[in-house]
Amino acid sequence: MKYYSYFIISIFLFFSACAGVSSQTNKNFKNTENTIAIKDLTSRDHEAMDAGSQLEDALEDTIARSVFIVTRENPKYVLKYKVLNYREGRALSKSTLEVKAALYDEGDMVGAWTVDAWVRGVKARLFQKAADEITRRLRGDSDF
Fold first, then answer.
1. pLDDT one-digit tens code per residue, 131-140
2. 30: pLDDT confidence band, cut at 50, 70 and 90?
3. What CATH number has the domain bearing residue 121?
4. pLDDT score of 107
5. Max CA distance (Å), the chain
6. Tens-digit pLDDT profile for residues 41-76
7. 3-class secondary structure for the chain?
8. Looking at the domain assignment, is residue 22 inside a domain?
9. pLDDT over 70 for what percent of the chain?
10. The pTM is what?
């Protein structure tokens, strides 16, 4: 009888300990303070448009590592850029890229600048270098 009561108490404790509580928290908020959209305004010729597309890819990769979130829906900031001049160099010659960029905060321009980048050799570095400079300007880290 003594063991029977211990057994009943043990089973009761076991089942009460296994009865879990399920809770679910639904969060519904949007943090749009650091969202940015990238808009390419380059439309001159095929070579400049191709450069604009490559720069957009480099910008998306670079901005994704910053505090900004690249989005297409209702961004707080819009980064507009236009490739003004692009010259692709050969193996040991210099590739150059000139870009005009402007940052808009909910429709109002808050800054504009021109970025000149050049490299010798691999042209992918050219677009990454320009994207890094634009991102530095977005963060305010550039020397004026």
1. 999 999 988 7
2. low
3. 3.40.50.10610
4. 87
5. 96
6. 988 788 888 999 999 999 999 998 888 889 888 899
7. CHHHHHHHHHHHHHHHHHCCCCCCCCCCCCCCCCEEEEEECCCCCHHHHHHHHHHHHHHHHHHHCCCCEECCCCCCEEEEEEEEEEECCCCCCEEEEEEEEEEEECCEEEEEEEEEEEEECCCHHHHHHHHHHHHHHHHCCCCC
8. no
9. 83
10. 0.72
Mean pLDDT of the chain: 83
Is residue 129 packed enough to be buried (19+ CB in 10 Å), middle (13-18) or exposed (0-12)?
Answer: middle
Does 13 fall in a domain?
Answer: no
Asked whether residue 58 is assigned to any structural domain, the reply reads yes
Number of domains in the chain: 1
Task: Give the residue numbers spanning the domain of 116.
Answer: 35-139
Rounded to an integer, what distance in angstroms lies between the CA atom of residue 76 and that of residue 69? 10
- The pair phi, psi for residue 49, each rounded to 5°, is -65, -35
Residues 6+ apart with CB under 8 A from 109: 102, 103
